[in-house]
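Design review, sub-item: ligand-bound model
Attendees: FS, YL, KQ
YL presented the inputs for the uridine-5'-diphosphate complex:
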Amino acid sequence: MILVTGGAGYIGSHTVKALKKAGFQPLIFDNFSTGHRAFIKGTPAFEGDICNSDDLARAFAEYPIDGVLHFAGRALVGESIEKPELYYETNLHGGLSLLNAMKTCGVKFLIFSSSCATYGTPQQVPISEDHAQNPINPYGDSKLAFERAMRWFHEAHGLRYLSLRYFNAAGADAEGEFGEDHDPETHLIPLVLKAAAGRHPEVKILGTDYPTPDGTCVRDYIHVTDLASAHVMGLEALMGGRVESQAINLGTGSGCSVREVIEAARRITGKDFFARETARRPGDPPALIAAVDRAKKVLGWTAVESGLDNIIRSAWNWASKTNQAW
Ligand code: UDP
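KQ shared the predicted structure:
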């Protein structure tokens, strides 16, 4: 079985579905602090906390775990600046508890949800995996700290790992089973769709004076279904001994500005809404775009669902189907 920490969360739930399709048997491990019980959908699930070593020990004792996908963690940049202790506790201490449980039980294979936030403000884009890592917030720093721990567990204990550095995860399951539902929501695309649905009076454009073509931030939006398939391909390659332990970027290699996202949302939803230009948000680099050659070379993976229109259409479809959001 494959233990999926955070398997009831946004990216975890999509990946659990992809694992099942590929013939793996996932076991969701989630404390449901931000994950959704409605996302379990019949998959075996264990209610537990990665920060609690007893919970982890029980899960590893009760189920025959062959490998781990580690999604559980905190992921809000702004919150991490205000409460860094939460980020080091969950993302680093919780991660170490997981590594220790794996070591105790002899489980060797780990795929970790890392982030482009580990790079900090890039010196150049596209950003390759060898770019310097100088995170500018505790979120990115806690992810980087865990990456470093994995590397030393690899050296000392033979851990086999992939650290998948996501750029901007977005979109929803094509069949509308899962989607993005955070509380509070801080991400651009769900906020734009809430404005389109009339649930929010406006969307804010956080900064219009960046050194980018239209003055707004540029991000590499990657469809969550593409992220899910990268995990499955990574797991197969890792367990099949076809790939070395390493970090791999997951993105499309091209970027969209905040204004482009807003325009695409207006076009696709057919709804107009007000976009207010405001000051920059602290900690936002002007442009984050992935260099994607390594994912292609090492995993044979490229993004196929990740056009901006498809991302917005799938997110709108999921949000419209589920009353919870609108
Ligand atoms: N953004 C924005 N308005 C919002 C939320 C986000 O203009 O209400 C911008 C933000 O400054 C960033 C981009 O949208 O440049 C993506 O932000 P998001 O929070 O979705 O992802 P992040 O890049 O922080 O991981």
